[in-house]
Amino acid sequence: MNIKKTANLLINFTIKRISEIIGIIIFASGILLITALLTYSPEDPNFIFPDNTEIKNILGFQGSFISDLFFQSIGLIAYLFPFTLLFSGINIFLTKDIFLIIENIFFSILYILFGSLFFTYFYSNAFTLYINGNGGFIGSYLDKSFFNFLIQLNETASYYILIFIIIFFFLVSIKFNLKNFYNFLKKTSKFFIKNKERNYTDKSEVISEYIPQDEIKKSYSRGFTLYKNRK
Q1: What are the C-alpha distances in Å from 41 to residues 54, 65, 130?
Q2: If pLDDT is split at 50, 70 and 90, which confidence band does 206 have?
Q3: 134: helix, strand or coil
Q4: Do the beta carbons of residue 102 and residue 22 sit within 8 Å?
Q5: For 79, which DSSP code?
Q6: Residue 197 three-state SS
Q7: Three-state DSSP class for 85?
Q8: d(Cα 62, Cα 65) in Å, to the nearest integer?
Q9: pLDDT tens digits for 179-197?
Q10: 59-104 pLDDT, tens per residue?
Q11: Calpha distance 84→19 (Å, rounded)
């Protein structure tokens, strides 16, 4: 019986530690990906351009290759995906639920598809991503499908609907909780308000904080006794 209990404890401990390691790896992947995307340069060598040029990406050739792959395939919406990885890593580390990444990736695919279509249709003029445009080749493909016809029915409404869909699936992919976010803002505001109030404490409170009242009473008693003896 004790052996069985010990084995279960060992298995649970191992699963939790593995989950934490996977969460850290996913979080680190998000950090590396956002770094590669932010330091992307279309002049860097990748799978399209020759590799005899100077690499400007901070992660070197690997960063140049990965960032170009993301931008050329899905476009500017790629900037959101690292945040999904970051929050997924944190949530997996805290909850020890490895399967969260599968659910989050699913919702990521949804906002990536709609995001690529959005940037291709409404912001087709690309100055940096001059090969496949702001929506990548996936956005270009979707723009040639029936989605183009649906958007043309009412471009203004479609514009805001697509923004709403993108934001909605992105928030779902990072497990955004409005209640927790409100509590976080509430605690943060209380912290700053408390610190601000402490800066305006009166002199008596400052004296009480840095000079214990017992010491003040003892000093006063000793001074009064010396004065009385001299007298």
Answers
A1: 11, 10, 12
A2: very low
A3: coil
A4: no
A5: G
A6: helix
A7: helix
A8: 5
A9: 877 777 778 787 778 766 6
A10: 888 888 899 899 999 999 999 999 999 999 999 999 999 999 999 9
A11: 17
Task: Give φ, ψ of 192 to 5 degrees.
Answer: -70, -35
Its pTM stands at: 0.74
What tokens were used for 126? 């690309």
Instruction: Give the residue extent of every domain in the chain.
Output: 2-178, 201-230
The structure tokens listed for 73 are 């395939």
pLDDT band at 4 (very low <50, low <70, confident <90, very high): confident
Read off the pLDDT of each residue in 151-166 and give the average, rounded to a whole number. Answer: 95
One-letter amino acid at 5 equals: K
Cα 52 from Cα 73, distance rounded (Å): 23
In the chain, how long is the greatest CA-to-CA distance?
105
Helix (H, G, I), strand (E, B) or coil at 30: helix
The owner of tokens 């249709």 is 121
